[in-house]
Every structure is written in structure tokens, then in C-alpha cells.
Amino acid sequence: MSDHHIVFIPADPHYLPAEEQVSRAKETLWQWMPEADSLDAAVSEYVQFHDCGSNFEYVRCHLCGQELTLPQWHLLMDQDYDLVRGFGLMPQTLPCCGSVASVNQLDYSFMQGFSRFSLTAINPRTGAVSPQQAELLGQRLGHRLLVIYRHL
Ligand SMILES: [Zn+2]
Q: Which domain of life is it from (predicted)?
């Protein structure tokens, strides 16, 4: 048994929608994904990492395009993470080209991201969300969204 999640997070990791916005977004999602196991809205106290599970292909520097090795990326993630305050998304020197950037700026394939708010469709039994749908859902939530396809 494998699980598929579609995770919607605000492009701004600190953005939190109002409860009413979340209800409206869930109503819309239920119309698109009536067979989903559940739609879970969550707010964490600190910025969390939302991964794509086994869909992970690579992480690249957004500036020079070079692929980072997993140990290089894990080191950047570890240095950014604090048990007390979660991810700080602090500027760090990248091992590829020496540019300074946060782990939230890197290119992830599949998409992965950082946020306090997330809206997750558990086993939606649908295909990918269209850009138009992502935009509409973003309007419901009051902020542009990133769409993460997590395969477990
Ligand atoms: Zn680079």
C-alpha cells in the first residue's frame, strides 16, 4: 500500500490564512477531490519542511544550476534547523558556487517546501492539480501556493 498526498503550502513560509479562508479552500478542494480520504489543514508553531517522499529526484542550486549531493544538502538543512524554533531559512554559503542563499531558495524536484501552514489532501485519487486550480486555491487562501506531490 502506498499513499499519495497533495500538499498545498503558501509561498511565504510564515503566511497563515484565516480560518474562514481555510474553510473556503477546503470546500473547493472537496469539489475537486470528492474521493479523498481526508483534507487536513495544519498550522505548526514553527516553519516545517514539507517533503515529496519517494518522488524526490534532486536538489539544485537555483543560481548556478549545479546539483547538490545529498550529504551537502542534508548539511545545509541541519545547519538551518533548530529544535527550538524549527527552520530559520537563514542565508548560508552554498558548496557549489559559493553564493549565499537559504534552503528555501534551492530548486527541488519534485517540489518541496517550507511553511507553517499546510493543507494536505490524503489519497486524493485525482491527477495533478492544474495551474489554474492552484491559483484559484491560492486566492481562497489569500496567498500564492506551492503544490507538493508526496509519495509514501
Ligand atoms: Zn550554486
A: Bacteria
